[in-house]
Write a structure and sequence with these properties.
about 75% helix; about 260 residues
Length: about 260
């Protein structure tokens, strides 16, 4: 057993040391086996749990989940320390330099009085920093691991800022209807259904984006609404002594319609 020093308050350096011990010989077998790939899902899940705490504005959970997020970041850095590819100081040095470089209106002589000006400067500096010589390069650099709705939103936003806009907000709805028609045709023919469904989702993101709607928030709200309505339908069916599977389609549709208005 490792006798780790007991303290009233543990700090950043203590977390780094605990992670080093867990990954070292004589530490935890599970922690020692982990790689970036095996830990990827844990990393993402912790990020979403922190986001959930933000949504609920719960300071206790935020403190805990941000701690878990910090642990995940440092855990992955520790893997690289052991591989000898980079260390903790490389990570902090890189991000500090990036923040200074991308905030010339704070640390330099550039003028930026509005949020829009700040974001415009940030994007230009980022493209220079990443060696992106075209908007296509910037689009290709958008992380593929993003939730697909957010990735679509970000791609469309970057393209629009480069002048790629051939429909107004109402026209984006026309495009959505066009893609739905093409999806129906694909279902009928039995070909390219997945591709056409993707086009529908992409067009739906654009229609929402043109109205300032976050697609992930919109879909999450729809999921919440579905759960609430489903619960009312299930409860109503149970009150009749039946399961949902025992209801004929017309009766199920009637309960669903009633649930929409309760």
């Amino acid at each position: 057993m490792i006798d780790f020093e007991s303290k009233e308050v543990y700090r950043y350096e203590d977390l780094v040391e605990v992670l080093r011990i867990l990954r070292a010989p004589g530490g935890c077998p599970w922690d020692r086996e982990q790689t970036h790939a095996s830990n990827r899902r844990n990393f993402l899940e912790e990020a979403y749990e922190a986001a959930d705490a933000f949504d609920r504005d719960d300071p206790k959970d935020m403190c805990e989940e941000l701690g878990d997020m910090l642990m995940q970041v440092l855990f992955n850095v520790q893997i690289e320390v052991e591989a000898g590819r980079f260390g903790y100081d490389d990570v902090t040095d890189g991000v500090v330099r990036k923040l200074i470089y991308r905030h010339p209106h704070v640390f330099g002589t550039v003028r930026a009085d509005t949020t829009e000006e700040v974001l415009t400067n940030w994007e230009a500096l980022k493209r220079t920093e990443k060696g992106q010589t075209s908007t296509a390069d910037a689009l290709d650099a958008v992380a593929r691991a993003l939730p697909a709705l957010w990735r679509a939103d970000k791609l469309q936003s970057k393209a629009e800022k480069a002048g790629f806009r051939f429909r107004d907000a109402d026209g984006s709805l026309d495009k959505l209807e066009e893609e739905v028609r093409e999806l129906r045709e694909a279902v009928t023919s039995g070909t390219n259904v997945e591709e056409e469904l993707g086009d529908v989702l992409f067009a739906a993101v654009n229609a929402g984006r043109r109205r300032g709607i976050d697609p992930e928030n919109a879909l999450n709200a729809a999921c919440g609404k579905f759960i609430a309505r489903f619960r009312r339908v299930e409860t109503a069916a149970a009150a009749e002594g039946r399961t949902l599977g025992e209801l004929p389609p017309d009766a199920l549709a009637a309960l669903w319609e009633r649930a929409k208005h309760e």
